[in-house]
Amino acid sequence: xxxxxxxxxxxxxxxxxxxxxxxxxxxxxxxxxxxxxxxxxxxxxxxxxxxxxxxxxxxxxxxxxxxxxxxxxxxxxxxxxxxxxxxxxxxxxxxxxxxxxxxxxxxxxxxxxxxxxxxxxxxxxxxxxxxxxxxxxxxxxxxxxxxxxxxxxxxxxxxxxxxxxxxxxxxxxxxxxxxxxxxxxxxxxxxxxxxxxxxxxxxxxxxxxxxxxxxxxxxxxxxxxxxxxxxxxxxxxxxxxxxxxxxxxxxxxxxxxxxxxxxxxxxxxxxxxxxxxxxxxxxxxxxxxxxxxxxxxxxxxxxxxxxxxxxxxxxxxxxxxxxxxxxxxxxxxxxxxxxxxxxxxxxxxxxxxxxxxxxxxxxxxxxxxxxxxxxxxxxxxxx
Length: 383
What we know:
With about 375 residues, this protein is α+β, with helices and mostly antiparallel strands. It has helices at about 5-15, 35-40, 45-50, 55-60, 65-80, 125-205, 210-235, 245-260, 280-300, 345-360; strands spanning about 20-25, 30-35, 85-90, 95-110, 110-125, 245, 270-275, 280, 310-315, 325-330, 360-365, 370-375.
C-alpha cells in the first residue's frame, strides 16, 4: 500500500463517498486501501476496522467460505483482465444479506501507476427476498392451480355426463314430439276425410230435393263443412300444426266456394289482397266460416242474371294489434234500411254473431256502389 500516494487515496475517498453501493478497494496483497460507509453498514464495522487490514483475514472472520469465493473472483479478474462478478451471501448482525460483487483491475489513477482491485458490493437482499416471496407465491399458485384443475376436471366429467343424459332426454322428447305431430296430422286428415264423407252424403241427399230453397240450404251447409274440412287439410299439410297460413287458406276457400256455385272467374273476378299472417286454428276457423257466409251471400244475391262484377277480399294488420277483414262486391247492393243484426238468412246471422261474440269485434255494412262488409277483430287467444 505504500506505493499508493496519499493523494490517490484521498481521490478514491472523495469519489466513493457519493456512492450508494458498498465499495472496497484493495491492493495486490489484498490489504484494504479504501472502503466507504455503504460497505461497512451491513457488517456493523467502521473504516478503522478494515483499513490496512488484509481482506482475507477479515473475510475469514466473517465467514470462512467467503475467502475461497473472493479468491476465485480476483483470479478471474487478473486472468481475463476485465470486470467479473459473483453473488455472495454474507451473515450480518441483521441476518444473511446478499451482494452482487463486481470487481475490476485498476492500473492507473491521476497519472500514477497503481495496481489495485476495486469492487462494488451492490446489496440485493431486498431483490432476493422478493424473488423468494415470488417463488413461494408461484409454488402456492401452482398448488392452487393443480387443485382447481382437478376440481374443474371432475366438474367437467360430471358436466359431460349430464350433457349426455340431456341429449338422450332431448332425443326421447324429439321422438315423442314427432310421434305427436304425426298423430295430430293423422287426426286432421281423418277429420277432413270424415267431413268430405258428410259432404258427399249431403250432396247425394240434395239430389233428391226439388225445391230450390232447400237446395240452397243444403249447399250453404256443404260450404260451411267444406271450409272446415279445408282448414284440416291445410293443417295436415303444414309443418306448423299450431298455426295456419291464412293467405293460402283464404285462396283455397274462395276457389272452393266459387266452384260450389259454379261461378267462373270470367263472370265474377276475384281479387285477393291478404297479408301472409299465421293465425291459430280457432281464429282461422272463425275467419273461414265468416268468409264462407259473406262470399256465398255475395255470389247468390249481388250478381243476378249472370251479371259480371268483381269480388274483393282484403285482410291486413290494423292498429292496436287488431286485424281488418274486408269483403266488397260491386253488385246491386243491399236494400236501404237493411239491418245486419236482423237478417232474414241464417248465414248472415252466423257471420254477425261470430264477429261480435266470438271475436268480440266490430262489423260494419257499407252500401255504396255495391256491398262492403268491414270487420275489425283480434286473434282468438287459446284457452
